[in-house]
Design goal:
mainly alpha; Arc Repressor Mutant, subunit A; three-stranded mixed β-sheet; two-stranded antiparallel sheet; elongated; 2 domains; 11% strand; 5 strands
């Protein structure tokens, strides 16, 4: 399952966000550099791919303006450059196959904002991130269960000894929020007298099931 739920004010154009979401490794790279600048080895570990693979993704991310290369030779003699978020920070709050992404501007800080207890703020963020991961896992399981239930319902309807028209009425009736909504959909989109048809089909289902 691969679901993208942009949260908050998304500052990344849709076409560029799609490039990020097209690869799990690329999303992990963006998530890592959005926290702080990273070395190639760090990004390789974070993305679970080779350094050469990271370089290929970084080349594209630099081209589309999401990542920038930063010189580091004056700070560390061992590392010549690191990579950081340029125009936006893209955070990955995913769990398993359930992907939740939030995009914000890549600014060093908001004007007028002061964090007095840096260690406490970092600890709070870590706790929130863990909670998000727990909820993401639960929501992912719920989505899986809902999808499985939808498949089971569709399969059950297809297996009934009923006409294609009756199956259509039944499927519309049982997949809308209420039977009244189903009747409205049948009337609006199919030109079928919804409520009467639904009641007739449901009565037949009760006889044959």
């Amino acid at each position: 399952m691969f679901i993208n739920l942009p949260l908050g004010n998304c500052h990344v154009p849709v076409d560029i966000m799609e490039e990020v979401l097209s690869s799990r490794a690329r999303l992990r790279i963006m998530d890592a550099v959005s926290v702080r600048p990273r070395t190639l080895v760090e990004l390789s570990d974070a993305a679970g791919i080779s350094v050469q693979g990271v370089l290929r993704h970084l080349k594209r991310l630099v081209e589309i303006g999401l990542v920038e290369e930063l010189p580091l030779s004056r700070v560390s003699p061992r590392v010549r450059r690191v990579y950081g978020a340029a125009s936006a920070r893209v955070r990955d709050y995913s769990s398993g196959g359930f992907t939740v992404v939030r995009s914000t501007e890549a600014l060093p800080g908001k004007r007028g904002t002061k964090v007095r207890d840096l260690e406490g703020a970092a600890g709070d963020l870590l706790i929130m991130r863990r909670r998000i991961g727990e909820h993401a896992r639960k929501l992912g399981r719920m989505i899986d269960e809902a999808a499985d239930g939808q498949d089971e319902l569709a399969s059950a309807i297809r297996s009934l000894a009923m006409s294609p028209f009756e199956k259509l009425v039944l499927e519309v009736a049982l997949t809308e929020d209420t039977l009244d909504d189903g009747a409205s959909a049948l009337s609006k989109y199919y030109g079928i007298e919804g409520r009467m048809s639904i009641e007739s089909v449901l009565a037949k289902v009760k006889r044959i099931v």
